[in-house]
Design a protein that fits this description.
This protein is an alpha+beta fold. The chain has 10 helices and 18 strands. Strands 2-1-10-5-6 form a 5-stranded mixed beta sheet. The protein is globular. The termini are far apart. The model is unreliable at about 155-165 (pLDDT under 50).
Length: about 525
């Protein structure tokens, strides 16, 4: 009986130790959240450690995460980090029952990790960014030390033996106080973080976009097919894809935002405010953006009506010349407020295409998720070399002198968008009725346009699809094909021909290093 009682006591103590570790971890994160709200929200330990993990993750793993989790990849990463922290906190709590100082030191070690991650971030604001991790770790270590002592301390009531009975009441009282304090700190931290972003929210809400000096032509009436299931020609802002490395979406106050243009071949360095840009003649254009992480048939492409300042004009005013005209810089490096760097060919930016610093998207100021107050975009190039969100710095340099973020991770320096087409309807493994079935989708080849789309059923001949009206060479084009579907399983394949006469290649390639290629196909079963 004594052995059974002893085992139960041991398990009970272990449970209390695990709970102590969990509460210590909760306290550490809550206090860190509070201090981050006072210092800088982006300096929170989960954010900086998550950013460090992203920076050090091999490109193939990043590509897998985007394919598997889509735009939820950051949420999955954060949940993964929190899950690991929970497991370690539980283990440290049990360890602290016998070795209080060692358990507390283990919590402090995570403060060191958070501090190192904070100071190594490209957008680090200096030593202040270490404060959230340091304060959180100190609070967590102290909490674990105190609670572990309570969990391991025998009851001292008169007449109670000192072995086998533990002071659960004292521990639970301390745990309740800890939980209340940590929850209060977390709520206050969230409140402070929200207040820090209110200025940015107010600046966006109060922004009135001027009329463009060069409006976008009206979308041709026949550009939007009346086919259920096909992607709309203009992608609503709420549905536009988002692929970036920001765990916390930057909220930049438009009133304090600045853009600096400098570097090699810049005779007259400039700094602009948002008001400066809005006072200039603006252009409005329909442009399709595509992410290099878009697999064949993938969702990471969309079309919006963008409003912005022609980028080439700003560069010319700064004295920049393209390499074809004797300019010394062949790469434009754009930097985001979160430290992201993207490199674009200067020649492409200044060759007459509608490269711009965009301030508006589909008739409203840029959403925060898409780069408010200003983002860059260059038609015809994948986003990782052209579409810098939350841009704050433009440096002219050379490809030999500097490798931007993604190039350091083995992606290609130059990345023109490949000719692609996608079947939107019917969906993969769908069950369309027999008879006439409309197969439809979109095709894109920015800067070249789409001149032909062909559909093949099983191993039959290629058949021409009907093309919707072409808006411009910088936008995708809808297509449709009326298929007389017979019962059975069928494979539907599609390919496109671009404006240069090149037929989309059948050769399959993954997204790394310069974009996916191959024909999209779907398998359906007709009842």
């Amino acid at each position: 009986m004594r052995s059974v009682s002893s085992s139960r006591t041991t398990l009970s103590r272990a449970a209390l130790g695990a709970l102590a570790g969990l509460l210590a971890g909760f306290t550490a994160l809550a206090v860190a959240e509070l201090v981050a709200g006072l210092v800088r929200p982006a300096a929170g330990p989960v954010t900086v450690v998550g950013g460090a993990v992203i920076d050090r993750t091999p490109a193939a793993v990043k590509d897998f995460a985007i394919r598997t989790f889509g735009e939820n990849d950051k949420t999955v990463l954060q949940l993964g980090i929190l899950s690991v922290l929970v497991l370690i906190a539980l283990a440290l709590g049990v360890l602290a029952l016998r070795y209080r100082r060692t358990g507390a030191a283990g919590v402090l070690l995570f403060g060191v990790v958070g501090t190192a991650a904070a100071l190594s971030r490209p957008d680090s604001a200096g030593i202040a960014d270490a404060l959230p991790s340091c304060a959180g770790a100190a609070a967590g270590a102290l909490t674990l030390y105190v609670l572990a002592g309570r969990a391991a301390r025998p009851a001292t009531a008169p007449g109670v033996r000192a072995t086998g009975v533990w002071n659960r009441r004292g521990f639970l009282a301390a745990a309740a106080v800890t939980t209340a304090g940590a929850a209060s700190a977390g709520v206050l931290g969230r409140y402070l973080t929200g207040r820090r972003g209110q200025g940015a929210v107010a600046s966006r809400s109060g922004l009135t976009l001027p009329r463009p000096a060069s409006p976008a032509p009206a979308v041709p009436a026949g550009a939007q097919l009346k086919v259920a299931g096909v992607s709309p020609f203009t992608t609503p802002n709420r549905d536009f894809y988002r692929v970036d490395t920001a765990l916390v979406v930057p909220k930049v106050d438009a009133g304090t935002w600045r853009l600096r243009i400098h570097g090699k071949g810049v005779a007259r360095p400039r700094t602009y405010t948002l008001a400066d840009l809005l006072a200039r003649p603006l252009i409005e254009r329909d442009i399709t953006l595509t992410c290099v992480s878009n697999e064949v048939g993938g969702p990471y492409t969309g079309t919006a009506r963008w409003l912005g300042v022609p980028l080439a004009a700003l560069l010319r005013e700064a004295g920049v010349r393209p390499p074809s005209r004797g300019g010394g810089a062949d790469q434009l490096v754009a930097r985001s407020v979160d430290g992201m760097t993207l490199g674009s060919p200067v020649e492409d930016v200044m060759d007459g295409r509608d490269a711009m610093l965009a301030v508006g998207m589909n008739g409203e100021p840029l959403p925060f998720e898409h780069g408010f107050p200003v983002r860059m975009l260059v038609p015809g190039l994948y986003g990782y070399v052209s579409a810098c969100k939350w841009i704050t710095d433009i440096e002219l340099t050379t490809f030999d002198a500097y490798d931007p973020y993604w190039v350091k991770r083995k992606w290609a320096r130059r990345a023109p968008i490949k000719t692609q087409t996608r079947i939107d309807t019917p969906k993969p493994f769908g069950h369309p009725d027999s008879g006439t079935v409309t197969v439809a989708g979109v095709a894109w080849a920015q800067r070249r346009g789409i001149t032909r789309v062909e559909v093949r059923i099983d191993e039959g001949p290629w058949q021409d699809a009907d093309l919707a009206a072409q808006d411009s060479v910088d936008t995708w084009r809808q297509w449709s094909y009326r298929w007389n579907a017979a019962p059975g399983g069928h494979n539907i394949t599609v390919r496109a021909t671009d404006g240069s006469g090149a037929v989309q290649t059948e050769e399959r390639a993954r997204t790394i290093p310069d974009g996916a290629s191959g024909w999209h196909s779907v398998f359906v079963t007709v009842p």
